[in-house]
Design goal:
The complex is a heterodimer of chains A (673) and B (333). Chain A has 673 residues and is an alpha+beta fold. Chain A folds into 4 domains: 150 residues; 117 residues, no CATH class; 129 residues, no CATH class; 86 residues, no CATH class. Chain A contains 26 helices and 16 strands. In chain A, the strands form 4 sheets. Chain A has a 6-stranded antiparallel sheet with strand order 1-4-3-12-15-16. Chain A has a 6-stranded antiparallel sheet with strand order 6-9-5-2-14-13, covered by helices on one side. The N terminus of chain A is likely disordered. By secondary structure, chain B is α/β, with parallel strands linked by helices. Chain B has a domain of 95 residues: Helicase, Ruva Protein, domain 3 (Orthogonal Bundle). A 5-stranded parallel sheet of chain B has the order 2-5-8-1-9. A two-stranded antiparallel sheet of chain B has the order 3-4. Chain B has a two-stranded antiparallel ribbon with strand order 6-7. In chain B, strand 3 and strand 4 form a beta hairpin. In chain B, helix 2 packs across helix 10. Chain B is globular, with a radius of gyration of 21 Å. The two termini of chain B are 33 Å apart. The relative contact order of chain B is 0.15. Classes of the chains: A alpha+beta (673), B alpha/beta (333). At the A-B interface, helix 23, helix 24 and helix 25 of A face helix 11, helix 13 and helix 14 of B.
Chain lengths: 673, 333
């Protein structure tokens, strides 16, 4: 079991020193921490067991596993990964495999070579974490991890008698700090090529509105205070009640569930007429293609597309914070005329469910003189009048005839209930109507002036097609709880609703509390981060390059990189150089220092223990002059505190030095010839 | 102090001082030269050590002379005491010397019927403590307390020692039999520790031809008096020290504190001793200000007994350490 074959000394020479090993293991833990939530829990267990084993080796209780055990472990790990239920080739599966290998490497981390491998892998894992999350918090943590990993590497190269982790960490922090200017230049200027291979998407579920809408759905979303997106308006901010962030359109209803029309066709751009409202949206990752806009987008990016139901979709699923600029025009009439196919698809209902509401709808329709707009208003009045109740905790509904049950029996519900019932009633009498999902409202962050829309702002409302005015927005929730739309969710919540919310959500809803305003401040930091770093994409870079270079050509970009990189490196070097240089006590010392530097270049270095007088007399011997007067002169300047130096004396000193230098140069040529 | 005078001044020393002071400068110069000349006549071929010893006394510090027996330690110390023209006593330390033998004791005076304090040999301006490390620690400390406090406390009464008060101690190397090594705290009270070393062949030849020089001691007369010594000491304090030189001294002390070669660094008292000794050295060499050469000249004598190598437990490697210190510290940063 002991060291086999090779002589002990040779093995020991390449062994990882015990002191740096501890720092290395800490670095590993730091690097793995942000990845833990993305890999299977059992992999964390494997890491801990391997870590314990390595620790026991470190303290000398256990031995390294033999080859067969290691092979078995690797096979078991891969098999375990296979049964962990990851999608094949998913980012999680790949990360899990890497983390597993990283953990098992602990068991054969014996030599310097292994340690360096682990260090390089650690750097790689720090980068991997960014595939899952690019927030400010993670970036700060990544900086910290970088410092710890670099410190581990510094520790490996320290003299083992004196390993001081604090000193390694300080040195590592300085090294990373010195790299920052160059990093910034590369970040800003280095061309962003398309990736050579596609990276699999993180498949973790994110909270948000889904493409299926059942009555309870949005009530669950209310529990989440995650950010849906942030918005920056270019001009005036529309009033709160107008902020309907349209994202999804549900046109099909079956078994109590509204679903999206999957085959909506692309639509030609509507074109801009009036001034419209311009704004930038920073959408948090949704893993889906849909985007949220105010009514109705008339200008948008090339990667976005307007569909026939007037929702905007992105070309690719949104995997990281996406910035898009929109101009919306609320005055646009959507679908002035409607063809039979569309009418059919927007009025279709299952054959026979919710009979009571159908009968009721027909009755009202007749009563309102078969007028769609009147009928819609009657329904709203009905909701306002009857003992309908707005609550986040509606009672359970049976899957069949759920709308009947809600409308006639329970009369307690949430936006989805009201919008669904409203659209159902209209469709029952053949009026084209659909449920629209998205967000309503948002709150302004006073620090940076942007709007934050959170998951608890999720909302569902209705759209009804009216002759002459096209698709018109109706919000039945507005009828039952006007405060929800006018003043946001907080105003509409009853006390019992409030207690069911998480602590953070309540804090977010409360503007007054100190905690709430702190959260707002953090939010503004995150927004600035998205604005300047995450949002800095190919287009933003192209913008900057055009501003900087006028015309973007490869040569110019290369030149800019070269100059920028050079300046940033010189900056660091310059700071180091000037900090190292000793500040001269007086002008005479500066003169003497310069003289020494010049003579050093001529090959006459002053030994550090050589006093100025010894130095001068040595030089004087070579130059064959009497050094005494110069020594006295120099001593007076440097060491006599009562000597009052003046410009004349200084220039005399300089002259003497120059003479000596000249003599020396001459004497060397004489010696050479 | 006019513009003119400052422009025509020479670089060797300050000429802007009033006439009375420059007159006293001349006196100081003559005194110092006289002292060196006389001592050179007694101790042959040891001019460097004599200058160091004088510098130590001019700087107001106590002197420790360490060497093998028979190297002239006692001769030098006697000669020093005599040429300075001060009252002096000699204590020969042995292992049975008691503190009261050094300080004095209270005895009953039969004639007056009262207790009376009889002053010990410590009550003199110069005390020659011969073979100090042969005494037991108890007696050593009695002497060393007096060195620091310049007073003696016996039976609860403190008695001032005369001023100036110098202790010139000699000791054999601690490797010799029957010695009690002085602890660091007590060594630190000596401004300098010098060794005499074997004499030069020419000087030794002279010595061998003319017999023991001890007889000379009786013939040595005082070269200067108390006034002259006070004048010299004042002149030492007036020697200029520039910022540049203080930088150098600070670099030296910092090096002893940072380098792993040293078990411990120089104390602030050690740094102060460097500056004070360098000033005296500059005065002996007729300079109005300290130059780095002065520091380098006195440094071994000042720091050797204050430093110990990290791997040296006997404290014998002081000389090599002092050389290491000089070689590794930049004179002009």
């Amino acid at each position: 079991m002991a060291i086999q074959g090779s002589p002990l000394a040779q093995v020991l020479a390449y062994q990882i020193p015990r002191n740096s090993l501890a720092l290395l293991m800490v670095a590993q833990l730091v690097v793995l921490a942000p990845l833990v939530i993305h890999v299977s829990p059992w992999i964390v267990g494997v890491y801990l067991v391997c870590g314990l084993w390595r620790w026991q080796v470190y303290v000398g209780r256990w031995n390294y596993p033999v080859g067969a055990v290691k092979s078995l472990l690797v096979i078991a790990a891969v098999v375990g990964l296979f049964f962990s239920g990851f999608q094949s080739y998913s980012l999680e599966a790949g990360t899990s495999l890497l983390v597993l290998a990283f953990a098992l490497k602990l068991l054969e981390m014996k030599k310097y070579r292994d340690a360096y491998l682990v260090i390089y892998l650690s750097y790689f894992l720090i980068a991997i974490a960014f595939l899952f999350d690019q927030s400010l918090l993670l970036t700060c943590y990544a900086m910290f991890s970088l410092i710890v990993v670099t410190a581990a590497m510094v520790g490996m190269n320290q003299r083992q008698a004196k390993v001081r982790p604090a000193a390694s960490l300080r040195l590592a922090a300085i090294l990373i700090g010195q790299a920052i200017p160059l990093t910034l230049v590369l970040f800003l200027l280095f061309p962003r090529a398309a990736p050579l291979w596609s990276i699999p998407l993180p498949s973790a579920a994110t909270t948000g509105i889904s493409d299926r809408l059942t009555p309870g759905d949005i009530a669950n979303l209310i529990q989440s205070d995650d950010i849906a997106f942030r918005v920056m308006f270019e001009g005036n901010v529309p009033p709160q009640r107008e902020l309907y962030w349209r994202g999804l359109v549900y046109s099909q209803f079956a078994d109590g569930t509204w679903t999206m029309n999957k085959n909506a066709k692309p639509q030609v751009s509507l074109g801009r007429q009036g001034r419209g409202t311009a704004y930038d949206v920073f959408l948090e990752p949704t893993q889906s293609k849909w985007l949220f806009t105010l009514d109705t987008p008339v200008e948008y990016g090339r990667r976005q597309q307007l569909l026939s139901d007037f929702r905007l979709v992105n070309a690719d699923p949104v995997l990281s914070v996406l910035r898009y600029r929109i101009v919306s025009d609320a005055t646009k009439i959507l679908d002035p005329s409607i063809d039979d196919a569309l009418r059919a698809s927007e009025t279709v209902l299952p054959a026979k469910d919710n009979p009571r509401l159908r009968a009721y709808a027909t009755e009202i329709y007749e009563r309102s003189g078969r007028n769609a707009s009147l009928m819609a208003n009657v329904l709203l009045t009905e909701i306002r009048k009857s003992p309908f109740h707005y609550t986040l905790k509606p009672p359970q509904l049976s899957p069949i005839n759920s709308i009947d049950e809600f409308w006639f029996d329970q009369q307690k519900g949430f936006c989805t209930h009201y919008a669904g019932a409203f659209v159902f009633a209209l469709r029952a009498v053949g009026i084209p109507a659909r449920v629209v999902g998205g967000y309503q409202g948002g709150e302004i962050n006073p620090v940076t002036g942007h709007f934050v829309v959170r998951q608890f702002d999720a909302h569902a409302w209705a759209e009804v097609w009216l002759e002459g005015s096209g698709w018109t927005r109706y919000d039945p929730t507005n009828a039952v709880a006007p405060a929800r739309v006018e003043r946001g969710l907080r105003a509409a919540l009853s006390n019992s609703d409030r207690t069911s919310l998480s602590f953070l959500t309540v804090a977010r809803l409360d503007d007054q509390s100190l905690f709430g305003s702190t959260l707002k401040f953090i939010d503004s930091l995150e927004h600035l981060w998205n604005l300047s770093v995450v949002g800095y994409d190919v287009a933003a870079q192209a913008d900057l390059l055009t501003k900087l270079l006028g015309r973007v050509t490869p040569v110019r970009v290369g030149l800019a990189l070269f100059v920028g990189g050079g300046i940033s490196v010189l900056l660091v070097v310059g700071v180091l150089f000037f900090r190292r240089r000793h500040a001269a006590r007086n002008a005479a010392e500066q003169v003497f220092q310069n003289f020494c530097a010049q003579l050093a270049r001529q090959g006459y270095d002053r030994a550090i223990h050589e006093t100025p007088a010894e130095y001068i007399s040595r030089l004087g011997t070579i130059a064959q002059i009497n050094p005494k007067p110069l020594i006295l002169q120099l001593h007076a300047h440097l060491y006599d505190p009562e000597f009052e130096s003046n410009r004349k004396a200084l220039s005399e000193l300089r002259k003497e030095f120059r003479k000596l230098r000249f003599k020396l140069a001459f004497s060397t040529t004489v010696q050479a010839s | 102090m006019t513009q003119n005078s400052s422009q025509t001044r020479t670089f060797s020393s300050s000429t802007t001082t009033p006439d009375s002071v420059s007159a006293s400068k001349v006196h100081v110069r003559q005194h110092v030269e006289g002292l060196i000349e006389h001592l050179n006549g007694v101790l042959l071929g040891k001019e460097q050590q004599i200058k160091l010893a004088l510098a130590c006394l001019f700087a107001g510090g106590h002197l420790l002379i360490e060497d093998l027996p028979g190297m002239g330690k006692t001769l030098l110390s006697h000669a020093l005491a005599k040429v300075l023209g001060l009252s002096y006593n000699r204590i020969q330390f042995t292992s049975d010397v008691l503190p009261s033998d050094v300080m004095g004791a209270t005895i009953f005076d039969k004639s007056s019927g009262q207790f009376r304090f009889v002053e010990g040999p410590l009550f003199a301006q110069v005390v020659l403590a011969d073979e100090i490390n042969r005494a037991t620690p108890k007696s050593q400390s009695a002497l060393l307390e007096a060195m620091e406090e310049r007073q003696v406390t016996s039976d609860g009464v403190s008695r001032k020692l005369p001023s100036p008060f110098f202790v010139i101690a000699t000791q054999n190397p601690s490797t010799q039999a029957g010695t009690f090594a002085l602890p660091e705290s007590q060594l630190d009270r000596f401004l300098m520790r010098i060794a005499l070393g074997y004499p030069e062949p020419a000087a030794e030849r002279e010595l061998l031809k003319h017999g023991d020089r001890r007889a000379l001691i009786d013939r040595i007369s005082a070269v200067i008096g108390l006034n002259a010594l006070t004048q010299i000491q004042r002149a030492v304090n007036n020697v200029g020290v520039s910022d540049l030189l203080v930088d150098y001294v600070q670099r030296l002390t910092a090096f002893t504190r940072q380098s792993s070669a040293f078990a411990f660094g120089l104390s602030p008292r050690g740094g102060l001793a460097l500056v004070q000794s360098a000033k005296a050295w500059a005065l002996i060499h007729d300079r109005g200000h300290v130059v780095p050469e002065d520091v380098q000249a006195i440094l071994p004598a000042v720091v050797q007994h204050r430093l110990r190598g990290a791997a040296d437990f006997s404290g014998q490697g002081g000389a090599a350490l002092a050389q290491k210190l000089l070689a590794n510290v930049d004179v002009v940063a």
